[in-house]
Design a protein that fits this description.
This is DUF4113 domain-containing protein. It comes from Succinivibrio faecicola. InterPro entries: DNA/RNA_pol_sf, DNA_pol_Y-fam_little_finger, DNA_polymerase-Y, DUF4113, Rev_trsase/Diguanyl_cyclase, UmuC. Keywords: DNA damage, DNA repair, SOS mutagenesis, SOS response. The chain has 436 residues and is of the alpha+beta class. The protein has three domains: 185 residues, Alpha-Beta Plaits, CATH 3.30.70.270; 60 residues, Orthogonal Bundle (DNA polymerase, domain 1); 179 residues, DNA polymerase, Y-family, little finger domain (Dna Ligase, domain 1). The protein has 15 helices and twelve strands. The strands form three sheets. The chain has a five-stranded mixed β-sheet. A four-stranded antiparallel β-sheet has the order 9-12-10-11, with helices on one face. It has a three-stranded mixed β-sheet with strand order 3-2-4. Helix 4 crosses helix 5, helix 10 packs antiparallel against helix 11 and helix 12 runs antiparallel to helix 13. It is globular, with a radius of gyration of 25 Å. It binds a DNA duplex (18 and 18 nucleotides) through helix 3, helix 8, strand 9 and strand 12.
Length: 436
DNA sequence: TCTGGGGTCCTAGGACCC
DNA sequence: TCTGGGGTCCTAGGACCC
């Protein structure tokens, strides 16, 4: 007899609550029940909030200078973002999730889809409860879990669980009545894949909720909008049509960019910053054992304020792909010279490496544009040695563009602001938490 | 004074070819 | 002077995500 009530595919979307803030709270039990916020690079805006901070009306993305008085008045504890800590905690959470399910798609630093085949709703919910308890006990992080037959519905169910405390952090949209319930209660903007632009267009067409959108004809909407919207409509109806979101082996680009703490006006200062970004991006490129053939570079003034605005981007294609910091740094110099215009106050710059090939299988070409194999090996060995030395002792070796500095770290502090930096509790032995 | 950073995917349109 | 149409490839820009 065919087993009844077994579902061919069920997704459990596990999402860590207030992730960055939760990471900081693990090592600071004194912050329990207190308002906490994690700030972006440069301590510019709020990127993660504890529930207490949310209740004070601090919005995601609030510029810090606009809420400074609230921070003081309510004694909101603020942290500069500490990515090495968050990545480390993230890895621990993912390891814990993997102990429950082999078929897992890590979607971002704080969420993952667990894919189960041929299970019942009761089994799915029982598993979700175990997972939630386990992550909390082992790592000290609270996860919300949405359960559904499509990823888009699992995201909605997860959001529903988060904002309705009666759910205990878990909501299943597997049954028709529950699915209908979350569709009716979810506004368009909560749907995964519907951003501000689509929301506006769809609202103008008379769609109000996820439910009304789910009743639209996917084919008609595909012609009118695009293929993604027709997929979303199918997904809202529980039809699984987003195959895999994880493309782990083939990242297509590496970007490195930062806003400057202070506006920069001189080309030399901007080049110095860019050389630094090139150095970081190339180090990442080498760690992935990739070569890049193209690099784009951009500079821009601030979007805000009354100062004159300027923004430009330019790309270069190398004669042969490589991962040599010196090659990309020279290219950056040429590109910056082309687009830099005197007289502006620059707020941000960045570089993007793309068109990758596998450095392990790269062959020197027939037309001798690329260095021969022994030269390539020599360059690779040099760069790998630099990486190894820097790994043990950061910034021991750096680019000629930074030679004018006595200490790179000191100079960096001039440009990037991190006034509220927490310790790297899990990533550095010098900063392990102490137990009294 | 101070407004993040790092990604992916889709589409329209230009360039080029026959 | 007349100025096709279809295919492919590339790129810029828009939209979205966390």
């Amino acid at each position: 007899m065919k087993e009844i009530n077994k579902l061919s595919m069920v997704y459990l979307l596990c999402d860590c609550n207030n992730f960055f803030v939760s990471c900081e709270k693990i090592f600071r039990p004194d912050l329990k029940n207190r308002p906490v916020a994690v700030l972006s690079n440069n301590d510019g805006i709020v990127v993660s909030r504890s529930n207490e901070t949310k209740n004070l009306g601090i919005a995601m993305g609030s510029p810090v200078f606009k809420i400074q008085d609230k921070i003081n008045r309510y004694k909101i504890e603020t942290f500069s973002s500490n990515f090495s800590l968050y990545l480390n905690i993230s890895n621990r959470v993912m390891l814990c999730l993997e102990s429950f399910c082999q078929d897992i798609e890590v979607y971002s630093v704080d969420e993952a889809f667990l894919c189960y085949r041929n299970i019942t709703e009761a089994e799915a919910i029982k598993t979700a409860k175990k997972i939630r308890a386990c992550v909390l006990k082992q790592i000290g992080i609270t996860v919300g879990i949405g359960v559904a037959t499509s990823k888009t519905l699992a995201k909605l169910a997860n959001h529903y669980a988060k904002i309705n405390s009666y759910t205990g952090g878990i909501f299943s949209a597997l049954s028709d009545d529950k699915r209908q319930k979350i569709l009716i209660e979810s506004p368009l903007k909560e749907i995964w894949g519907i951003g501000p632009s689509s929301e506006e267009k769809l609202t103008n067409e008379g769609f109000k909720t996820a439910y009304s959108l789910s009743k639209a004809d996917p084919e008609v909407m595909r012609k009118k909008y695009n293929i993604n919207l027709s997929r979303t409509i199918n997904e809202l109806n529980g039809i699984d049509c987003i195959e895999s979101i994880v493309d782990s082996d083939c990242q297509n680009q590496i970007m490195w960019s930062r806003s400057f703490k202070n506006r920069l006006t001189k080309i030399d200062d901007i080049y110095e910053a860019l050389a630094n970004y090139v150095s970081c991006a190339c180090e990442k490129l080498r760690s992935l054992e990739l070569y890049a053939k193209k690099m784009a570079l951009f500079i821009r003034t601030s979007y805000f304020g009354n100062a004159k605005k300027y923004s430009n981007e330019i790309a270069i294609c190398l004669e042969y792909p490589c991962s040599d910091t010196r090659v990309f740094a020279s290219a950056a110099k040429i590109l910056l010279d082309r687009i830099f215009v005197d007289g502006y106050e620059y707020a941000k710059a960045g570089i993007i490496l793309y068109e990758f090939t596998d450095s392990r299988t790269f062959q020197s070409d027939l037309f001798n544009k690329a260095p021969n194999q022994s030269e390539l090996n020599k360059n690779n060995n040099l760069m790998n040695a630099v990486d190894k030395i820097n790994k043990d002792n950061k910034d021991t070796i750096y680019l000629g563009a930074l030679h004018s500095l006595t200490k790179v770290e000191n100079k960096k502090k001039d440009k990037i602001n991190k006034d509220h930096f927490s310790k790297r509790y899990t990533a550095s032995f010098d900063e392990l938490p102490e137990v009294f």
